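Can't paste images in this forum, so I'm doing it all in text. The chain is below; anyone willing to post the predicted structure tokens underneath?
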Amino acid sequence: MSFDSDVTVPRLAALRKRYQADLDRALKNDHEENSALWVEFNTNRLNELPRPMCANCVHLQTGMRCRLAGAVPPPEVRENGCEAWEFDDIPF
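Text version of the structure:
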């Protein structure tokens, strides 16, 4: 899934909230023939959202250095991202 280049922590939270609401609606809808397809679609969309971490942040430089902090972030930040995280949209 490709995202706009401006996916930040607040925008990611809003997308996750919207996708979860869509999934909840699809799960409640058991009267339509294609409800299983909507559940699958919305589940996949939710699961494909990027997880904030230094490895997929635009601020990452060589040597795992953060351009904003000017240092190597601690392990908990590297694994969970920080408030300045911005998705780099690189698929690997």
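Helices lie at 9-28, 35-47, 75-80. The radius of gyration is 16 Å.
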